[in-house]
Amino acid sequence: MAPASVADATAGAGGGGSAAVPSPPGSGRPRPRRGITATRPWVAALFLLPALILLGALVAYPIIYTVKRSLYDADGSGFVGLKNFGTVFSDHGILTAVRNNVIWVVVAPAVATALGLVFAVLTERVRWGTAFKLVVFMPMAISMLAAGIIFRLVYEQDPSQGVANAVVVAVHDTFTDNAAYPGARPRPNSDLKPTAGGSFTSASAAASGTAADLPLVGIPANKVPKGAADAKPAAPEPGKVTGTVWLDFRPGGTGKPGVIDPGEKALSGVKVQAVKDGKVVASAKSGKDGTYSLPAKAVGAQLRLPGSNFSGKYEGINWLGPTLVTPSIIVSYVWMWAGFAMVLIAAGLAGVPRELMEQARVDGANEWQVFRRITVPLLAPVLVVVTVTLMINVLKIFDLVYIIAPGNTQQDANVLALQLYLSSFGGGDDQGVGSAIGVILLLLVLPVMVFNIRRLRKEGRR
Asked: What is the pTM for the complete model shown?
């Protein structure tokens, strides 16, 4: 048998099944197999061409044009160099947007990631964990526009429309009484005088056996509670201070000032305080007929009707006011993205070795120690991925701020992406400044993206 035939038979009998390329005549080594890109590079270029065209048209060209446009004036006719960037860092409104972006980047990703971690860990221990994850992740199925509309209604100031204020008002009213008669005031030239905090205090001291009547006006007839009884003079009580609180007005104006005339209505539930040397020594509330009675220690004290009797009805918190508008919008963002963080962290948690946790418990570690010293360190790579992804996301936040923040506080909630729109198309008509803001956003995102890419490559080498 020829040597070549022996070699072929040996290769076949070895059972390796290796598809060695037959060696050319006169060569003692098999020819190495070449990949398709080594023999036909134009095929790879053909497949990549559509993606490269889209990448250039949708990414590369807009970036280059934006950088170029940022160096020109508002209408693009004159070269101004870096003047637009100077405007960005000197304009008060844009600096507010920069400050808010810092708040967003620091707070929103951290809170969403922390909640996602808590949800992912806790749902592992409950039978209905899958249903809970579905509910938490569900907001991701709706758009930012829809979420903005939802929370715009949630934060409505009117408690009958806004859910947030409906809850706050219900809790407040459970523990605090509402004002009995908002807008009421003493009759002019009466003994009651306005004092601090919206209260009214008598100029003279109360005496025993003499009625200390407290007439009020300024309450429209339709604001008087239905079924209010007629006011009655208080009966004198030895050693006590008595009097009547009533609406000193009779329809038609036929009543006499300071006198309880027939038909004048009693003001029940009005708090009356006896004050000596700035301290409240006794208090009482007027009854259905308007009368009240204070103990003996009220003799010689001034009578005060606190402002809580007359302040307007509690309407809740101004969620979208200048102070709370940014935190309120961040809450809506966390509502949407906590589910995203939970799903990614739960996937990472599934790969954590259970043996380590069980060993720690056997060694006496409690659940908090297991969570802090084993679960969190092992999940650190996943937590970094989630946090970095959310940081990139919040740098581009636009929809929620534009929809939720009302016009009068939109400037207080402003962010860079919204300011880019406002400067370029929303009335500013200065695409030079808008392009400069776009370049700044790109420069802010680039370090985070580079960090993420390097971290992913490092993970891939392991």
From this structure: 0.69
Burial class of 237 by CB neighbour count within 10 A (0 to 12, 13 to 18, 19+)? middle
Contacts of 441 (CB under 8 A, 6+ apart): 395, 396, 416, 417, 420
Instruction: Determine the CATH number of domain 91-157+319-429.
Output: 1.10.3720.10
Tokens of 390: 């959310």
Tokens matching residue 292: 């009240």
Express each pLDDT in 400-435 by its tens digit: 999 999 988 889 999 999 989 888 887 777 889 989
User: Which tokens belong to 153?
Assistant: 């209604």
Q: How far is CA 46 from CA 42, 43, 54, 171, 401, in A?
A: 6, 5, 14, 67, 43
Spatial neighbors of 135 by CB under 8 A, at least 6 apart, are none
Picking from 293, 309, 175, the residue whose alpha carbon sits closest to that of residue 233 is: 293
Q: Which of 257, 260, 187, 262 is closest to 219 using CA atoms?
A: 187
Which amino acid appears at position 327 of this protein? P
For residue 308, report the phi and psi dihedrals to the nearest 5 degrees.
Answer: -65, -20
Cα(442)–Cα(422) distance, integer angstroms: 18
What angle, rounded to 10 degrees, do the helices at 416-424 and 431-461 form?
Answer: 150
Instruction: Give the β-pairing of 241-247 and 291-294.
Output: antiparallel
State the alpha helices, DSSP H only, in 36-126. Answer: 36-39, 41-55, 61-69, 83-88, 92-122
Average pLDDT, integer, range 237-245: 89
In whole angstroms, what is the distance from residue 30 CA to residue 33 CA? Answer: 9
Could you tell me the residue ranges of all domains in the chain?
Answer: 91-157+319-429, 185-309
Q: How far is CA 120 from the centre of its chain?
A: 22
Q: Measured between alpha carbons, how far is 395 from 415 in angstroms, rounded to an integer?
A: 9
